[in-house]
Write a structure and sequence with these properties.
25 helices, alpha+beta, single chain, six-stranded mixed barrel, 4 domains
């Protein structure tokens, strides 16, 4: 028979093998590309959020003492770019030379200087040609006096128009300039304008109100004139990194390049940038995400490989009679393996290639090891069936018939191998905890193998333990009426026959439960972080509110309760037992009405004592002893340490030195009230914008009381900001690598569920011939089709139940066992949370188990029709 005829004859078995190979190849490429794409998007988003001074590589010139800058450094732009360490030169999307004054006062010419003038920076910058549209006037053409060009918004804020003459002043000089043009940028979002924002500023004396800081443009001759007059003209060479060319796999390389650029600066320059800090922090998150992705991918690929092996074994078992005939006619073992190899080579490589191509078309970035993994999938898918065929034909007891009543007692060799596997898994987990994650090794091989070994070891232990309860249950069923339960449990008790499907099913369930447990753990920790940062439904922050601002907000619709709070960053503390003076963060609020989870010593505190109880951070408590004095807004208060806590609601999880004081118990005089800068808002359905407006009214009222003058809307140096807990909690999922993390969790659970169902289907197909013969005999005794389905349920349920218990336990404890190596704290704002499992995930596992039973019934029904169950005895056919 030719190869094509054999392929046609055994098309079902080969198609199953091909489909599983294609699925494995897709899982190697597609999901990883998507995860890498989400990671790259997160990195680019983090870089985009940085201000221009932090994300750009900016070299500042160092001037000689007493020598004004001549704004003559534009020619060095290409030279400095070429000297940047690789790969930075290829990642620059824009480069500009800037000659710019420091902040200088600006006022109408001839008008005496006021106490709080507006401030401007005047710059000449290359690359502005063609990027502006003149609204009025023209571009600067400076002669003896500098000419200025003003943005439309800056002109409105500063009260400037074409034809105005202004006086610019620094501590070293004054010069007059003319406003000759007003412009708008062609593209306001272009990088060239990203460091020219119009900023509100506070006057040195708050009673003088607010002022504006702006950037004005001039030409080169104007910049030189300003430098000679003001002696504060500096020069910069600014290089914009193109975030679209940056990928997460190059973070380490870029971080080192920026660090090298900082060390090896061109002559008389200094580099200003913090992009390497952002890259370094992101790199730490990438390592943690890659660790999680590696665990999930290893579990999924191990499950897929197990399914391929099961399909290959099924193919070899179904063709025992054929292989026996080949051997009887003098064929060697290699003949059996060779003919099977030719069949798989006809179908499987094409399917694997198709699966790989399906993964390639997905957006994202390929991992470095993708070709090797695809090659490994191809080798496993092509060689598994020939190897199994060779083993079947080579076995000394080979006869072409399988025995379903073979001895269930394992050999000493197998028991030794299983014990070694269990010890290897335990040792791998132990070493992983002790050693931690090898960040320099790319994908840590310990991290890949240890979780899979743990799941396989759990299946081995379950395999050895499950016969005992099944034997007990079978004895009970033998005494009951009817033979269905007894026969089903007897079939389930032949555990060695199910060792392969059980191991695959346990690995799949363990991978899914691991993913679900990590998801629940991260979500719980993020919930805790949100509760700490925003201890009410919303927090209003500002510079300084009037004492009645909280009452104003409490009067708004849908606001149930408000609490004024002061976060005082520079509180000076002196301990009773030490002369040490230190500064800490003090939080002052009415703890009795705030509704926060605080110790009873603070919530029950009342006025009248010599000292008020306080919560103190552990590090500060070690310095202070039992109590001391704290200065809050210019007044000292005595306190005693009532509790020591590492975290309190209202302070972020990274706060280290702090104390919490009960405002209701403090001897605060009426003439010197505590002025809050935070307000906690409790309620449901209130309008955050109304809350913000009321808070700003409170800030203006406080400034009016201080300055004696009316404060206009829009002049606050620090407008109020309303942060709801829901918005803060959402923001924790929109930072850095969170997109890749969420995708990894979702893909891991979906893939694990799908592969678990496939494993159950293959387990049913593996035992279908034996059950078919049993059903054929029982049909002659009156067995109904319904009773036949019950027989399958009794046989398959123990397998699924044991897999759910063993895999669920392994998946649940795995995050706790290898958690120190995963670095989950990077995704939870530093908040540590115990291992938790959302009940929905547990219910999902049970739902998958129920679907698995239904799938088993459907597969069994199809298999019975192909095997023609019920005709064996009548027609004398032999089914194998």
């Amino acid at each position: 028979m030719s190869v094509l005829h054999r392929v046609r004859a055994f098309a079902g078995q080969l198609i199953l093998l091909a489909v599983l190979g294609a699925l494995a190849a897709f899982l190697v490429s597609g999901p990883v590309r998507l995860a890498n794409g989400h990671t790259d998007d997160g990195l680019r988003g983090d870089i985009n959020k940085l201000p221009a001074a932090s994300r750009d590589l900016t070299y500042s010139g160092v001037q000689s003492e007493g020598r004004p800058n001549k704004a003559a450094g534009a020619g060095r732009l290409d030279q400095i770019r070429g000297e940047l360490p690789a790969p930075l030169p290829d990642m620059i999307s824009g480069a500009w030379y800037i000659a710019e004054t420091d902040l200088s006062s600006i006022r109408p010419a001839g008008v005496p200087a006021g106490e709080c003038p507006n401030l401007v920076r005047v710059r000449w910058q290359t690359g502005t040609e063609g990027t502006v549209t003149m609204v009025d006037g023209r571009s600067p053409r400076s002669g003896t006096a500098p000419e200025l060009m003003v943005g439309k918004d800056a002109a409105a804020a500063l009260g400037l128009k074409v034809g105005d003459r202004v006086s610019l002043g620094s501590r070293d000089g004054v010069i007059e300039a003319a406003v000759v043009g007003v412009f708008t940028p062609v593209d306001p979002a272009a990088p060239i304008w990203s460091d020219q924002e119009l900023l509100p500023g506070a006057c040195p004396d708050p009673r003088e109100g607010q002022r504006t800081e702006a950037v004005l443009l001039t030409d080169q001759r104007g910049a030189v004139a300003l430098g000679e007059a003001l002696f504060n003209l500096g020069e910069r060479w600014r290089f914009r990194l193109d975030e679209q060319r940056i990928t997460a796999d190059r973070v380490d390389e870029l971080t080192k390049a920026v660090a090298a650029a900082r060390r090896l600066t061109p002559e008389r320059t200094a580099l200003q940038s913090s992009v390497d800090t952002t890259l370094s922090k992101f790199g730490e998150q990438v390592v943690a995400v890659q660790a999680l992705l590696a665990v999930v991918q290893a579990g999924i690929l191990a499950t897929a490989a197990g399914l391929i092996l099961l399909a290959a074994r099924l193919m070899a078992d179904r063709r025992r009679a054929e292989f026996a005939l080949v051997r009887a006619r003098g064929g060697a073992v290699r003949t059996v393996a060779g003919r099977t190899l030719r069949e798989t080579l006809t179908v499987v490589p094409i399917a694997v290639l198709a699966g790989w191509l399906a993964g390639i078309v997905l957006p994202g970035r390929a991992s470095a090891g993708e070709p090797l993994l695809v090659l490994a999938v191809l080798l496993v898918a092509v060689l598994a069936a020939p190897v199994y065929a060779a083993l079947v034909a080579w076995h000394p007891a080979f006869s072409g018939h399988r025995s379903d009543v073979a001895s269930l007692r394992p050999s000493p060799r197998r028991l030794t191998a299983e014990a070694f596997l269990v010890l290897l898994a335990a040792g791998g987990i132990f070493l992983l905890r002790r050693r931690g994650l090898d960040a320099g090794a790319g994908v840590d091989p310990y991290l890949i193998t240890a979780p899979v070994l743990l799941a396989v070891a759990a299946s081995v232990v379950a395999l050895r333990l499950v016969p005992f309860p099944l034997r007990w249950a079978g004895n009970l069923a033998a005494r009951a009426r009817g033979a269905i339960a007894f026969l089903g449990l007897s079939g389930a008790g032949r555990a060695p026959l199910h060792s392969g499907p059980l191991a695959v099913l346990v690995v799949a369930i363990a991978t899914g439960l691991f993913t679900g447990t990590v998801t629940s753990t991260v979500d719980a920790a993020r919930d805790r972080a949100a509760e700490l940062a925003v201890p009410a439904d919303a927090t209003v922050s500002g510079f300084r509110f009037a004492p009645d601002t909280a009452a104003r907000i409490a009067g708004l619709p849908h606001v149930d309760r408000t609490t004024a709070m002061l976060l005082y960053q520079g509180a000076t503390v002196r301990g009773d037992t030490t002369p040490l003076l230190t500064q800490t963060q003090a939080m002052v609020l009415d703890t009795a009405t705030a509704g926060l989870d605080l110790p009873a010593a603070l919530t029950a505190a009342r006025p009248g004592g010599d000292a008020v109880p306080a919560i103190v951070s552990p590090r500060l408590a070690a310095q202070l002893g039992g109590g001391g004095r704290v200065e809050v807004q210019g007044r000292e208060y005595r306190f005693t340490v009532a509790a020591v806590q590492a975290n309190v609601p209202g302070l972020s999880s990274d706060a280290r030195d702090f104390m919490v004081l009960p405002q209701q118990a403090m001897p605060i005089p009426d003439f010197q009230p505590i002025l809050p800068n935070r307000i906690l808002v409790a309620g449901d359905g209130f309008d955050p914008e109304q809350v913000r407006l009321a808070a700003d009214d409170g800030q203006r009222a406080q400034l009016a009381a201080l300055t004696g003058g009316e404060q206009k809307e829009g002049q606050l140096a620090l407008p109020a900001v309303v942060t709801t807990r829901t918005a803060y909690r959402t923001s924790l999922e929109e930072r850095g690598v969170d997109g890749a993390l969420s995708f990894t969790f979702a893909a891991g659970m979906v893939a694990a569920a799908a592969l678990a169902l496939t494993a159950v289907a293959l387990a049913v197909l593996t035992g279908a011939p034996a059950r078919g013969r049993t059903l054929s005999r029982l049909r002659t005794m009156g067995l109904s089709a319904r009773q036949g389905r019950r027989l399958l349920i009794y046989e398959i349920l123990p397998l699924i139940g044991v897999a759910v218990l063993a895999g669920g336990l392994a998946g649940f404890v795995l995050p706790a066992l290898i958690g120190p190596a995963l670095g989950l704290g990077g995704f939870t704002s530093g908040v540590a949370a115990g291992i938790t499992l959302d009940p929905w995930f547990a219910g999902g596992v049970l739902a998958v188990a129920a679907v698995a039973v239904l799938a088993a019934l459907a597969v069994e029904n199809v298999a019975n029709r192909r095997l023609r169950v019920g005709t064996v005895l009548r027609l004398g056919e032999e089914q194998s």
